[in-house]
Each structure stands twice: as structure tokens, then as C-alpha cells.
Amino acid sequence: MSRTQGDTKSKIIDLGEKLLLGKGFNGFSYADIAISLGIKNAAIHYHFPCKSDLGLAIIQRARERFKKWGANKETEQLPDRERLDSFFQIYRHYLTKRESVCLSGALETDFTTLPKPMQEETRGLVYDLLTWMEIFLDQGRKRGTFSFPGTPRDQAIIVLAVMQGGLQMTRVTDQSVFDLAVSQIRRLLKP
Amino acid sequence: MSRTQGDTKSKIIDLGEKLLLGKGFNGFSYADIAISLGIKNAAIHYHFPCKSDLGLAIIQRARERFKKWGANKETEQLPDRERLDSFFQIYRHYLTKRESVCLSGALETDFTTLPKPMQEETRGLVYDLLTWMEIFLDQGRKRGTFSFPGTPRDQAIIVLAVMQGGLQMTRVTDQSVFDLAVSQIRRLLKP
DNA sequence: GTCTATAGGGGGATAGAC
DNA sequence: GTCTATCCCCCTATAGAC
């Protein structure tokens, strides 16, 4: 059987994600994707009738990816601090490979202009991240790996905000700003 | 002399800022402003020939505002921790009065799509914020008001990233998230 | 599944009257 | 300073051929 559809479809999501992260949801068009993939505008509409369908697919795939990362046997068995670094690496990759901010940050700033289904999916994404981090920090503190005041939820909010804000700030200054942010948040978690 | 111009012009900047913070630079149009102010599209172009002229004016005014805030005699003489809270209040106001994210965060996510002059002004804004916070934290630590590992610059990055990311996250969850972020960053600075 | 062609709307921006 | 009128481009989306 042909896998032309599957290939094109995932190429569109790949590129759509890159454009979304790089330019915001209102900053790219089907034409950008079409030109870059060497196909026509209408071909994209065949796979994703509305732009919000594409946006939704991008967020859903990212949530699945994170879910798999969290459930990965190798990752799961790492020592807490290495697992933390592995989490930070997700954000570092946004910076190095895609020259972009993170998905939650991009979607949150565009939030008010997003169609309802994308808003809901964005909420889900942020919920996933917050929940994972909260549980992770809670376990880590109980084991003595991490130390921080307040509740695990308080600290989870801080850690995610730093990743998100750090990626954005680094975009207008220089790469070192994000790396300094990561180093500092690591220090702040030291027992 | 008539002050019609001055009035309209600053009303445009006011509304433009609100829209920029609420919907992103690519998320609002001259028509939004025109309708809301009860004037016509062309009237805005009289004051700001290009949209980037308006964007530039918004950022420049915000920088002036922050400069004045920093140089304000009353603010300057406050104890460090009250001055820190006064800084946090700037961000809290974005949330309560404008239902929006902060200016640097909004501009950074749209950054790649912004005209050059706006990019440069955005860099300046972030530089202002980072520099002020770095000096403030440095002095505070020397006085024993604040405690944190790493350099003042490291910590300044973290604090700003938390404000920025916190405002964005709170938009898709609930207001408490931003307040929890502020409480937590205050705790993390405790001696 | 992808194409050509095109509809239909909104965007930024300008010309010229008042 | 503000208006009416209009241009032109880009955008999302659809219809129908291949």
C-alpha cells in the first residue's frame, strides 16, 4: 500500500510545528508549508481542512511525545538529577534544533486568538507538564535529591516558567541566557 | 492650541499596547483600534504610517515608564523587599487590569516576525529589565536582604523568566498560578 | 492525493476631499 | 486631523479536474 499520505501528513505536522514554534500560530500560513514541501496549498487542506485542525494535531502529537518520554523505561530508571537534566534537554533541543521557543509558551501568548479546540488542547498540554513536574519534584524531595521551600506544585510552576521564559528571553539576547537559567534552576534545587 | 492630536495619538498607543499584550503583534489590526476608538483606519495611519511605527512607540513608551519607575524617589527609598514587591506588582497589573501577558514575553514570541526596528527596541527593553534586576539583586545580597546561589545575573534571569512565564501559564490555567509563582520566587530569595 | 483555479475576506497602506 | 474611497496583497478555504 502507498504511504504517500502518511509521509506528507507527518511532514506537514513537522513543518507546522517548526513554524508554530518559530513564528507563532498567526505568524505562518499554509503557503509557507506548501512552498517548503514543494506541494500546493490545496494539498494541505486535504489533510487538514482548517488551520485549527493542523494546530490541534501539532499539540496532540507533542502531548503524546511527552507522555512517551515520561513512560520510557530508560528515562524512568535514571537517577533524579539525570532525569531532570533529560527534561531540560527537551527545552534545549527547541533552542538548538529548531531555533524556537517551547510549544506551551508559543501557544499561551497566542492563546486569546486561538480557536476553542486548540485552547482546550493547550490547557491539556500545560496540565500534563505541571502534573509531571509536580510529582517528580515531590518524589525527589522525599528521597532527598532535591531541596526547595513551598509545595512541589509551587516549585513546579517556577521550573516550567523558567524553561518557558528562559527560551523566550534567549531569543532576543544570546544562547547563554537559557543555559544560565538552567544552571541556576539546578542550583536552586540542590539539597 | 488643539490637543486633539495628542489625545488621539496616546489613545491609539494605549489601545495598541492592550491589543499587543492581549493578542500578540500579529493578532490585532488597525481596524480593531479604529472600531474601538470610533475613528477610521486612515486616522491611525496619519499618526502611525506603518504598523511597526505604532509597535515601536508602544515599546519606547514602556521603556520610558520603567525607567521612570526605577528612578522614582519614593520607590528608590523603599526597603529592598518592598521594592521587589513593587516590581512584581508591575506584572500583577498586566494580569488584573489588562488580562494580558507582559510586553517582553509577547514581543519575544513574535520576535522573528517583527520588523527590524521593533526587534532592536525589544532587545533594549529586555536589556533594561535584566540590568535593573541584576544590580538590584546584587545590592540586596550584599546588604543581606536576599540570598541566592550563583551570580546576580543568573538570578536576575530566573526572576524575569518566572514573571514572564508565570503570566503566560496563568492565562491558560487560573490566576492563582501567577500568584503562586510570585510567592515561590520570594521564598527562594529569603536569606 | 495532488493539482489548477478561484472565491471571499481581511490586512496594511495611500490619495485626495473636507 | 479625520474622512471616503480604493488598491493590492496575502490569507483561509472550496470546487472540480486529473
At the first level of CATH, the class of chain A is: Mainly Alpha
- Sketch the major β-sheet of chain A: none
User: pLDDT below 50 for ≥5 consecutive residues: which ranges of chain A?
Assistant: none
Report mean pLDDT of chain A, rounded to a whole number: 96
Following the backbone from N to C, one meets helices and strands of chain A in this order, namely HHHHHHHHHH
How is this structure best described in words?
Chain A contains 10 helices and no strands. Chain A has a single domain, classed as Orthogonal Bundle (Tetracycline Repressor, domain 2), CATH 1.10.357. Helices cover 78% and strands 0% of the residues of chain A. The radius of gyration of chain A is 18 Å and the shape is elongated. Chain A has 191 residues and is mainly α. The relative contact order of chain A is 0.11. Chain A has helices spanning 4-23, 30-37, 41-47, 51-71, 73-76, 80-98, 103-110, 116-143, 152-172, 176-188. At the A-B interface, helix 7, helix 8, helix 9 and helix 10 of A face helix 7, helix 8, helix 9 and helix 10 of B. Chain A binds a DNA duplex (18 and 18 nucleotides) through residues 2, 4-5, 8, 29-31, 39-43, 45-47, 49-51.
